Amino acid sequence: MLSEEYMGVAIFAIIALLFPVLAFFLSRYFRTDKNDPRGQTTYECGEVPIGEAQIQFHFQYYMYAIMFVAFDLVTVFVMLWALVFSDLSDLAKVYLFMFLGVLLVGVTYALKKEEVIWI
């Protein structure tokens, strides 16, 4: 039996579990079932599609995306650690430098794959 202290959490959990299921089943009533030829085409910001929708992208774009995510993560985590660096324990500082080391390996791999650096 739930105590009175956790009743709000239990109600919130039930609502959180039922809401996606309810939204899934209600979407059947709001969607359109019409077959429109425009729905089968590629959407290009209101413009008439030109050429094939499936083209081959260069691998370099994926590398730039991976590097962006890596540097974005570094910015978030290192800035948070930098705010409290003097208050951190020695173990937390070791974890910080391990995180930066793993990140450095990933960035080095990405740059080496792009042939920007030669190691």
What do you see in this structure?
The protein is an all-alpha fold and 119 residues long. The chain has one domain: Methane Monooxygenase Hydroxylase, Chain G, domain 1. Helices cover 61% and strands 0% of the residues. The protein has 3 helices and no strands. The chain has helices at 7-30, 59-83, 90-113. Helix 2 runs antiparallel to helix 3. The longest helix has 25 residues, at 59-83. The termini are far apart. The relative contact order is 0.06. The mean pLDDT is 79.
Brief descriptors of the model:
Methane Monooxygenase Hydroxylase, Chain G, domain 1, 3 helices
Count every beta strand, where a strand is a DSSP E run of 2 or more residues.
0
Mass-distribution shape: flat
CATH class: Mainly Alpha
The major β-sheet equals: none
CATH topology: Methane Monooxygenase Hydroxylase, Chain G, domain 1
The overall average pLDDT, rounded, is 79
**Per DSSP, what share of the residues sits in E-state strands of 2 or more residues?**
under 5%
**Overall domain count:** 1
Q: Supply the helix-strand structural class.
A: mainly alpha
Number of helices: 3
What is the helix content? Answer: 55-70%
- Which sequence of SSEs, written as H and E, runs from N to C? HHH
First CA to last CA: what distance? 62 Å
Low-confidence blocks of residues: none
Radius of gyration: 25 Å
Tell me the CATH architecture. Up-down Bundle
